[in-house]
Design goal:
317 residues, four-stranded mixed beta sheet
């Protein structure tokens, strides 16, 4: 059967998933004293003060960030997995989906551009379901809705096995600066967790294989179907805050996508975006800061001190 490869820009649900709420007051952020390297400009510079918005439209609030050595660190540092810890999507998850479709002789191939569109849908099972609902289900797929759920679950299980094999072979490296930032947080007693829409086994494999067992035992994982609604719903971040026993306003999230950013902000958390291969052109207007990566010295973009500075705010009516 000829391979199916077409754009899903018309999937109405994907449009809804990337919508953002705009918030209305003015915040002036004072950067801390670390000099950051900006590879895009080819020079080193201090981060430019950001302008963002918070609060109710009827009662504007002026927010000023003041760096102070006595100010508290974040209570928790929460990472998305795919695209943040590892740039897994194009050469990891996509390949594993395609290998699964090929094994099952479904006649389906997701090319690079199509998969970029599909990433607007959070969750692999949800992604496949939306695709087949739009393009038509394979001939080998069952006809009833309940049997199709089982069919999708079996495809996703096999896809996860193939993806984990890639991770265990360490064919996909950690993104620059990830281990550094996690080590800084753990050394200071900041709680660290990974919050992902991906399968829990796949996320655990990434954390244990690429970050190592010593770090892995200190990192809490919230992933997959642990919540009923995937990002951009804030459920995964709400669960993390409750489980870790931390105030959402004292958490810093590192995300790479518009739907991840929307989830973090809806949970009332500060969010830094590190763009990934598929998300470079997405709208990150509501982010507290945006970088191309975390970075390791001498090409460091930000560190734990910068995360702390984003929380150092004095609210003045």
């Amino acid at each position: 059967m000829a391979s199916i490869s077409l754009s899903l820009a018309a999937i109405s649900s994907s449009k809804a998933l990337v919508s953002h709420q705009k918030t209305p007051s003015i915040a002036s952020l004072k950067p801390h004293n670390t000099t950051l390297s900006c590879s895009l400009l080819g020079t080193s510079l201090r981060p430019t003060p950001l302008t963002t918005t918070r609060g109710k439209a009827s009662s504007p609030i002026k927010i000023t960030c003041l760096a102070s050595s006595s100010s508290p660190l974040p209570s928790a540092l929460l990472f998305d997995c795919d695209g943040v810890l590892v740039d897994t999507e194009k050469d990891g998850h996509r390949i594993s989906f395609n290998d699964t479709f090929n094994e099952k002789e479904l006649g389906v191939t997701w090319d690079v551009d199509l998969y970029g569109e599909l990433l607007k849908i959070g969750g692999g099972k949800e992604r496949m379901t939306a695709y087949f609902n739009k393009t038509g289900w394979p001939e080998k797929a069952p006809k009833s809705e309940e049997e199709r759920k089982d069919f999708i679950a079996s495809l996703h299980k096999r896809k996860t096995e193939l993806f984990m094999a890639l991770i265990e072979k360490k064919l996909l490296p950690l993104r620059s600066g990830v281990a550094k930032l996690i080590d800084q947080a753990l050394a200071e007693g900041v709680k660290v967790a990974v919050c992902s829409t991906s399968n829990e086994k796949a996320v655990s494999a990434i954390v244990s294989c690429l970050l190592g067992p010593e770090r892995a035992e200190k990192i809490k994982i919230f992933a997959g179907d642990v919540v009923p609604r995937k990002k951009p719903d804030p459920a995964i971040y709400n669960l993390a805050a409750v489980t870790l026993g931390v105030d959402p306003s004292c958490c810093v999230v590192v995300e790479d996508s518009a739907i991840g950013l929307a989830a973090a902000k809806a949970a009332g958390m500060t969010c830094i975006v590190t763009k990934s291969g598929y998300t470079a052109d997405e709208d990150f207007l509501n982010a507290d800061a945006v970088f191309d990566c975390i970075g390791d010295p001498p090409e460091e973009r930000f560190d734990l001190a910068f995360c702390k500075s984003l929380l150092e705010k004095q609210y003045v009516s």
